[in-house]
Each structure stands twice: as C-alpha cells, then as structure tokens.
Design goal:
By secondary structure, the protein is of the alpha+beta class. 42% of the residues lie in helices and 14% in strands.
Length: 625
C-alpha cells in the first residue's frame, strides 16, 4: 500500500492544483481531478438559460472534448446494461427524457428516471446551487433530443428516428454529412452531453471548470459513500469502497489497478468470502491516489506501448529522469573535459550538476519510481515500485552516470548542432542499440523496465542486453553509418560499466582483446585516409569487423593484406600508421595471437584508438589553416 499512500500524500501536497487546467508537452489539457470526479470525452455541449430554458447547442471538437464531471462509485464502474447514471453530464440515454421516442432502446429500468431522480437529490440538498437548478429545470421537461434536432445537432431518418450510422441514402434528406458523425464513434444515441448555463449579462464559469461545483458535489456525495472500515492505506477508520477508478492512462483506459469484483473463486481462490476481507481501502484515499496518478502520468509520465514509467517526489514533482542520458541530466560538458584522457574530471562535473538538483528539493522529499502496465483490457499491475530517500536516489543516479560511461555524439544542442558528451546513454537508446531503431515497442518497454534495477539498485546489466549490443556493434555492414556509430558508443558504455576503462586511449593496457581492437582501428583510419574524400564506402576493417571479432588472428592477416595498396597510395604518410601497428602488434603475446573470439574490450580499444588518431589528424589540419 506504500505507493497508494505516497500518491495520496502527493495529492494533498498539491491540493491548490485541484481543478486547474494545464497543457502537457503534447498540448493536451489535463487537471488534478477532484475527489468524486472523473473525465469523459463530450460530443455535444448544451447551453440552458438561468430560467431553465434551452438556449443553444454545439458539437464539441475533439481537442476540447475532455470534460471533468461528477461521478459516483457506481457510475465510474458501470458496464453493460447496468443503469448507473453520472450525476450531471452523461449520455443521451440518461439525460434525454424523449430518448425512446426517437428510437432509443431502454431496458426494464428507465435510465432517464434514474438520472433525473439522482440529480433532483443533489439539487434539493443544502449543496444545490443556481446552475444546478437551471440545468435540472430544463432536463426534467424531457425534450432534449427534440431541441437538439431543431438545433441541427442530431439528425433523423425518414421515420423520425435517430440515424444510427450515416450512409449515402441519407443524402436526399440532408444536404451534407452532419458533424456529429465525425466525433461520435457509434450511433448518435451514444453521444455524451455536457451542460452549461448561459447568461447574457455575465460570463459564467463552465460547470466542468467551476471549483464551486466540484465542492458542491463532493460535500453532497461524501455522506453516501459506504460503511466505515479501517483503511489499509492511511490506517484511519473511514468510509470504504470496493470500486476503484479506471481511465488511469487515458480517457478510454478500462484497466484497473485495484479490483475485487470476481466472486466466482478466481480472485480469492477460496481463502476469503468477500473482497474487503483481503484489504479495505477508504473512498477518499482511493480517489486521491488514483487522481494523483492520472495527473502525474499526464504531466510527466513516459508511456511506451501503454506501459507507464513514472518518477516523482511527494513534495517536489519534477526530478531528473533516470531514463535519460547524461547530457540531458548534467547539461553541457566542457570541451576540455569531454576530450580528457581520464573520466575523473567528468565524474566531478556531473556530480556537481546532480547535487544542484538535490539541493533544490525539500529535505523531507522522498523519490518514487513506478512502472504500471496492463495484460488485459480490465486489469492493470504495478510492475516495479521503489520509494527511495532522496540522497540515496541521487547517489545511485550519480553512480550509474559515472560508471556506465563512454564518449557519445548522437544528440543535438539548442542550436541543432551535433555535440560530444561523456556519460551514460538513455535507456531507450540502449534498447535501440541492442535491438535496432525499428524494434517493437513491446521489446523497448521490456528492456527499459529491466534496466531499472541496474540503475537504482546497482545490479549488473543483464548479459543478454550487453551481448546483443556487442554483436550489433560488431556487424557495421548491417546498418547505416550513423546507426552503427551510435550503436558502437552505446555498446562501449554497457561494456565499460564492468571494465571501468577511461575513454581516452590507454597505451599501457596490454590486454589481448583491447590490443586487437586498437589494430582494427589503425587499419580503418589508414585506409580511410587514403580514400578520396567523396568515397563513402566502408573500409576493409569495417567490412571484416564481424569476422574479426570471432577469428581475430586469421582475419587480421586478411585485413593486413587488403590495406597494402592504401599504404602504397599514402607513401611516406603511411609510415606513421605502420609504426603504430608494429607497436601494438609487439605487445600481443605470441600465445595470445590466436582465433579465440574477442570480448567487448576490443570495442573499447578500437574506439579509443580511432578517436585518438582522428583527434591528432584534426589538430594537424587546424595548424595548417
């Protein structure tokens, strides 16, 4: 229950945000939903006068459809033919007293009668107000569909019934395809209607944005919730509920995190007779926790194939995202550090950037990491949850970004320029390195979840991920140049998490695999230097790279033969590269010069040697200029 408690505390800490409409990074509106409320996509907006008369109506555009509405525990969980009206805004079958007159089908229990009776109780309670009375006075007349037809919002067929689906045969009756069919997925009878009060003398706050209306229903409904019981979230004796919210990830989301409605033996397995014998949760705690979760997901959640990755602080919401790369967390790394021969200076600078985040948080703030997903349309699960002290969280984050380190060049700065940065890659880039940029989102989200223990708990990176990235990096001919370069640096980061080598070239490293990698790099740069500037083909070293990783001694002989023409083309300039090859070769022991497959360290040696050669070449060209 810890995650529920922390979500409730987050709700209470941000109580001033309740009902405020904001826009997220996708330009979608969202709000911290009040208790006893939910959201629905409205299709029709009806305006009534203060005297309870019809004024006007309009079809709601999709980008304005999200509507904050009062909700009971029964209406929030209604399904099938169960009649459970929302208290104010609802579908035509509930709000229109003339629904059956226009071809609408109703069961034994009339939905409109249940709706108007419930609305009347709210209106006549001490918490009723003028807006409610105006809407109620109009709706009890039972002429909603009639007025909407006159207003040319809804349309009838030749028999005076609501058109279910538009087709060409209705062109004779109506000039063009009505707009209502562009927003309603089913027939017109399934349209959701929201109500507003129009005043010619003043601009009234719309009910779905009016905090007074929110509080009016909350005060009315809180005394009707249910029996009191011990809440397993707060430890207090409060009115409990066995029905909990859905629509957690988006308005059409039917999956629930908490559910106990299966009484046929599957849920309880014979251990309990009723769901509240397992655990009881108060209505207030459930509402606050679920509404806070919805708000956080819209505000800052990362959603991949419906799997939600969320990180927040109870008192400070926005935190450095552990799924991001070092550049986006630590900011720009100074050029002299990014080209340093050791990683210690980078580690010191990154630590300062992380400490800057930490000092801005309140002392008592804890960090929550939550991953949720659904296997079916009705059930959702918490796949991963951790609540960490802020100091421990930042230490783990700092350790990850200063150990899973390599030099990368695949992100752009504010000027849209490619830049170099030292640090750890983003988990999504790790997924693309391991499985390719066209990897299915199901694979990507699985990898991102599996990486969390490595980042937060200091565990080793799963070997299959490293193995996959290593083999893709060793097969450059299977991908474009930019993709391979990115895959190579990400693979180097993963491998270096264990090896802890410097990005800069280590000439004193006599490891066999590291030395073989250096040889491959020199052969690549030598041939590239002899090629015409317009040539874009791969060098022999790159073409044979996959074979080289499996049979280094045999493949090196092939590569060495293939670069001889380029050595001749370079003339005296080839001497520099030849000397390096001889120097590296002399360090490899005779018994180690064999075809034993290379480990990931050869990639580290290759990258560092190649970077060193290109860096020297750039300096020489700058001197000439």
């Amino acid at each position: 229950m810890t995650w529920l408690l922390n979500l409730q505390e987050t709700y209470d800490a941000n109580i001033k945000e309740v009902g405020n409409i904001n826009k997220n990074r996708f330009n979608r509106e969202y709000a911290l939903i009040p208790v006893a409320h939910t959201t629905q996509n409205a299709h029709i907006e009806v305006n009534v006068t203060g005297e309870g008369e019809f004024h006007s109506a309009m079809v709601v555009e999709k980008d304005d459809a999200s509507t904050l509405i009062p909700s009971t525990v029964d209406s929030a969980s209604r399904a099938g033919a169960v009649v459970s009206p929302y208290p104010l805004h609802d579908k035509l079958m509930y709000t229109a007293g003339d629904f059956s007159e226009y071809g609408g089908k109703i069961g034994k229990k009339n939905p409109f009668e249940a709706y108007i009776e419930q609305l009347e109780q709210w209106v006549l309670s001490p918490y009723g107000n003028d807006k409610l009375r105006a809407i109620y006075s109009y709706l009890k007349k039972g002429q909603l569909i009639s007025d909407l037809v006159k207003e040319k919002i809804l349309f009838l067929d030749g028999e005076g019934k609501l058109i279910k689906r538009w087709n060409k045969k209705y062109d004779k009756l109506h000039e063009e395809r009505p707009r209502i069919f562009s927003v309603v997925a089913g027939d017109q009878g399934s349209a959701f209607v929201r109500f507003n009060v129009y005043s010619p003398n003043e601009i009234l706050t719309k009910p779905w944005r009016d905090k007074e209306m929110f509080n009016s229903f909350i005060n009315f409904y809180e005394r009707q919730v249910g029996n009191e019981d011990v809440c397993y979230v707060t430890g207090e004796v409060l009115p409990s509920t066995d029905k909990h919210a859905n629509k957690i990830r988006h308005a059409a989301d039917k999956a629930k995190l908490i559910s106990g409605n299966d009484t046929r033996g599957f849920t309880f397995r014979g251990k309990f007779n009723k769901s509240d014998e397992v655990a009881s949760i108060s209505y207030n705690a459930s509402q606050k926790a679920h509404n806070a979760l919805k708000w956080l997901i819209e505000k800052q959640g990362r959603v991949i194939d419906n799997r939600v990755f969320l990180i927040w602080g109870n008192n400070t919401l926005e935190l450095p995202d552990l799924q991001e790369d070092s550049f986006h967390l630590g900011g720009k790394i100074d050029e002299d550090i990014s080209l340093a021969t050791t990683n210690s200076e980078y580690a010191a600078q990154f630590s300062k950037a992380i400490d800057g985040y930490k000092h801005n948080l309140k002392f008592e703030s804890n960090i929550n990491i939550l991953v949720i997903d659904s296997a079916t349309t009705g059930r959702m699960a918490v796949l991963y949850y951790r609540n960490l002290d802020k100091d421990l969280y930042f230490e783990r984050l700092k350790d990850w970004h200063t150990s899973c380190v390599w030099l990368h060049r695949y992100v752009k700065n504010d000027k849209n320029e490619w830049i170099e940065f030292i640090g750890a890659p983003a988990t999504k880039d790790i997924a693309f390195a391991a499985y390719g940029p066209k990897a299915d989102e199901k694979i990507v989200k699985g990898l991102m979840e599996r990486m969390l223990p490595s980042i937060l708990e200091g565990r080793e990176i799963p070997q299959d991920i490293i193995f996959s990235a290593f083999h893709r990096a060793s097969n450059p001919v299977s991908m474009e140049r930019w993709e391979w370069e990115k895959t190579l640096t990400v693979a180097c980061s993963l491998i270096n998490k264990k090896e802890r080598l410097d990005v800069g070239l280590d000439k004193n490293n006599d490891d066999r695999d590291y030395l073989f990698g250096r040889l491959l790099a020199v052969a690549d740069v030598l041939e590239r230097s002899a090629m015409d500037s317009e040539e874009s083909r791969s060098t022999n070293a790159i073409r044979y790279m996959n074979s080289f990783s499996n049979h280094p001694a045999r493949t090196w002989n092939t590569i060495q033969d293939s670069i001889q023409p380029y050595q001749a083309r370079l003339g005296k300039r080839a001497t520099y590269y030849t000397k390096i090859i001889d120097e590296i070769g002399s360090k490899i022991k005779i018994e180690d010069f064999n075809d034993k497959p290379l480990s990931g360290k050869y990639l580290l040696g290759m990258y560092s040697q190649r970077h060193e050669l290109y860096k020297k070449k750039d300096k020489e060209e700058n001197k000439k200029e």
